[in-house]
Amino acid sequence: MDAAITDVHEKVAPFIDGETTYGLRQHILSPLEVLAQSISTIAPSTTPTLTVPLVFALAGNGTWLAYIIAMAGMLLMSLCIATFARDSASPGSLYVYTRDTLPPVFAALGAWALFFAYVMTASSVIGGFLNSSYIFLGRLGPHVPPVLLAVIAAGAAFAIAYRDVKISAQVMLWIEAVSVCLIAIVVALVLWKHGLHIDRAQLHLQGVTASGVRSGVMLAIFSFVGFESATTLGSEARDPLRNIPRAVIRSALLAGLFFVVCTYGETMGFSTSPSSLGDSTAPMRFLSAQGGVPILGPIIDAGVLVSMFAATLACIIAAARVLMLMAHHGLAHRGLSTTHARNETPAIAGLLTAILALLPAAVLAARGVSGADIYGWMGALAVFGFLTAYALVAIAMPIHLRRRGRLNSGGLALSIVATLAMLAAILGTIYPIQPKPYCYLPWIYLLYLAAGMAWYAVSRRQSA
Q1: In the 3-class helix/strand/coil scheme, how is 186-231 assigned residue by residue?
Q2: Alpha-carbon Rg of the chain, whole angstroms?
Q3: 3-class secondary structure, 19
Q4: What H or E segment, with its residue span, contains residue 15?
Q5: First-last CA distance in the chain
Q6: pTM recorded for the entire structure
Q7: CB 366 within 8 A of CB 146
Q8: Is the confidence at residue 7, as pLDDT, over 60?
Q9: Are 126 and 137 in contact (CB under 8 A)?
Q10: Segment 219-258, tens digit of pLDDT
Q11: How many CB atoms lie within 10 A of CB 18?
Q12: CB of 176 closer than 8 Å to CB of 36
């Protein structure tokens, strides 16, 4: 629907200090809690256990390089996003940045892409939750239905997100902090055991191919996606124009450094193992035993399990706020724009988000697909949505700066480089053609976008 419906919603929405509140609790989250939203969506503790082995299977000794390249791209995007976040605070996140800058059709495209990205990421980490659950449960695992575990993950995450955003942020912060610290301890012990020297096989990229690194970068990008999710807390963060851009940049930088160190340590740790890192389903158990602290292996597995839940929670929180603002602007049913009177959370949008995240994971699990495959497939789908939204923000940035009289050669150069990086990443996810079922994923994403844009066209025609 067009500006007519938008105006209605904006007129009835309450204002505090000249800002639209959208019925959300105002300015209650500390800088650390804002950072926790981005960190938890990234779920850094899941990367060393699930994503790094997948990247290693493609890039081998060049896995560290794949992560450095991915980190560079995400840091470029964090600077672009932070430019907008210093001027605008809204639960609509990247969608609002493009809506205020680009033609309406591109804003709608960005909105549907971003919502899809958060929902698919939630579905992916539900798959990761299944995988971690069975590792943790051991012999008890076969007696627990995977669909039940998926329902528990999505249902419990929605229950917390529905209750209180501040409680949600605190839960996510502690979960990730403990898990990351334990993994860092294990990696440090492994590096210490191998001696403080440079691993020449990794430094010289022994056995590495350019195509392997390129494919590895595409998977490594999924480790970072969601770093911008702090922008969905624009109404709920304290001093949002200051704390949100800081959280966006810091989350991308800190996560990237953690990933590179873990990747280097894991590759070195498995260099003396009879099995490959790429084939390992529980690398932290092997590395903790190698580091002389085998007791930390099961503890880390438990931490990763809970971290998967925290990531599900973070994605539901972010997606619900994007969907709520889409409803305010006529891109979704207006009933999704409401918030809970007491909890001041987007309850209906959150419930729909949780259901949409649960369905793909539950259906695939019921058909016998492993949690690790669900994590990989849904994660690959999510990357399409994030890269689309990121590219639109990078394109919009110089227009945003020019309108405010702040466009300079540095800002223009950042926009061009970031845009080219995102377009190259999109192309890399499509070509060379991936094996089944990954070759079908671009078509699924395009069908979804076509449906979203058809809804947009119909809504505009009805309101004309």
Answers
A1: HHHHHHHHCCCCCCHHHHCCCCCCHHHHHHHHHHHHHHHCCHHHHH
A2: 21
A3: strand
A4: strand 15-16
A5: 8
A6: 0.87
A7: yes
A8: no
A9: no
A10: 899 899 889 989 988 778 889 899 999 999 999 999 999 9
A11: 5
A12: yes
Residues 6+ apart with CB under 8 A from 95: 107, 110, 111, 114, 322, 325, 326, 389
Q: Are 63 and 51 in contact (CB under 8 A)?
A: no
Amino acid code (one letter) for 196 = L
382-426 residue pLDDT tens: 999 999 999 999 999 999 999 999 999 999 999 999 999 999 988
- In this structure, what token pair is assigned to residue 388? 């689309």
Distance CA 64, CA 72 (A): 12
Of 119, 91, 298, 325, which Cα lies nearest the Cα of 225?
119
CA 368 to chain centre: 25
**d(Cα 380, Cα 218) in Å, to the nearest integer?**
9
Please give the backbone phi and psi of residue 330, each rounded to the nearest 5 degrees, phi first: 85, 10
* Residue bearing tokens 């990531």: 311
Burial of 395 (0-12, 13-18, 19+ CB in 10 A): buried
The DSSP element (H or E) to which 397 belongs, if any, is helix 371-403
Residues listed for the chain: 464
Q: Are 321 and 345 in contact (CB under 8 A)?
A: no
3-state SS assignment for residue 20? strand
In 3D space, the residue among 320, 251, 239 whose CA is nearest the CA of residue 28 turns out to be: 239
Q: For 106, phi and psi rounded to 5 degrees?
A: -75, -35
Q: How far is CA 359 from CA 120, 122, 155, 416, in A?
A: 10, 11, 12, 38
- Output the six-digit token pair for 381: 């789908």
Amino acid (1-letter code) at residue 55: V
Distance CA 124, CA 427 (A): 22
